[in-house]
Amino acid sequence: MSGSILVVATRNQGKMREYRQLLADWPVELISLDDAGVTGDVDETGDTFLANARLKASEYARLSNLPTISDDSGLEVHALGGDPGVYSARYGGDACQSDADRLALLLENMYGLPWEQRVARFRCVAAIAAPGGAIIGTVVGSVAGMIQFKPEGEHGFGYDPVFHLPSLGQTIAQVPLEIKNRVSHRADAARKARRVFQNLSHL
Fold first, then answer.
1. Bridge partner list, 137
2. Which residues of the chain have pLDDT under 50?
3. What pTM value is reported for the model?
4. What is the DSSP-derived secondary structure letter of residue 5?
5. What burial letters (b/e) apply to 64-83, b meaning 16+ CB within 10 Å?
6. Structural domain boundaries in the chain
7. Which of 71, 72, 160, 188 is catalytic?
8. CATH topology classification for 4-198
9. What local confidence, expressed as pLDDT, does residue 3 receive?
10. What is the pLDDT of residue 14?
């Protein structure tokens, strides 16, 4: 695997920063879709995290002709029946144009819920594809927490400012990236993905 290039199927610089730290000790060069010269986007037409992760990994690996890791992740709030779930990045549709809009909608939809009913989890499903597009492994990572009544913290992105980690007594957005990358759903998935790579001599 030494000297290999691995495409991270994202154009999100926040996610790239996380992956570069998460996989810093991997003997691979991590590049984004833009770095790989991939101009097209793959629509997330799946109705599960797994379906979307597999779809994106396979298609972007085919387009780049490089091994690719893709994840689909999101926030699942128990009191909202698992929403926003697979639609976390598109929560609220066209009415929500930013992370701040989606976060505000989430808090509005949870208005009046007491602390004990604000249980949630971040879940991340990652898929790894060979250059031709064949899926060679999938992994699942998750982290449990609570949804705060108001945002706190300047780090992270998405729903991080309201996702309270009881073990740390803070939101994910309040802790430095190096701590987030020890406890997050993406960190959990990345650790498992590494084991997939270690079993693959052809990458």
1. 128
2. 1-3, 201-203
3. 0.84
4. E
5. bebbbbbbbbbbbbeebeeb
6. 4-198
7. 72
8. Maf protein (3.90.950)
9. 47
10. 80
